[in-house]
Design goal:
152 residues, mainly beta, 8 strands, globular, antimicrobial, antibiotic, innate immunity
Amino acid sequence: MQKLFIIAASCLALSLALPKNFGKDPKDQQSETKWDVKDPGILSFEHREKLFEKNGHRVDGTAVVNKNFVDKMDPWKAGGRVDYKYLDSKAGASLEALNAGRFGTKVGAEGTYNLYKGRNSALDLGARYEQSFGGQFGRSEPTFGGFLRATF
């Protein structure tokens, strides 16, 4: 328990010490660190970093860690995501993986196309693939789907 407290306090200190870019859209910042306590006892950290941006191409990386301190059987969950956007064509792609210890690893891929982007809203059309590997039930069947996502 002491080790968990030291890790949580270190992450909190790091997130508070990082310089903030006020007045900018959070998606345009170089990096962003968030921490949150969801439902009582679930601690979550997320760090997003702009890895590359040149000639209309942009690559962002995100790392996520969370732990449920109420349910002792729930393992640490750690994962990452890489997002690619071609800004000139409004198209993008994402790859992600989330490891949940004995429950296995979930991987996914997503492709999106922006249909509309307003000042405070957006409408995206996309397709998604997801599959789990390892864990108690072994490899799952792949899941494919399409979506229409609105942001306000």
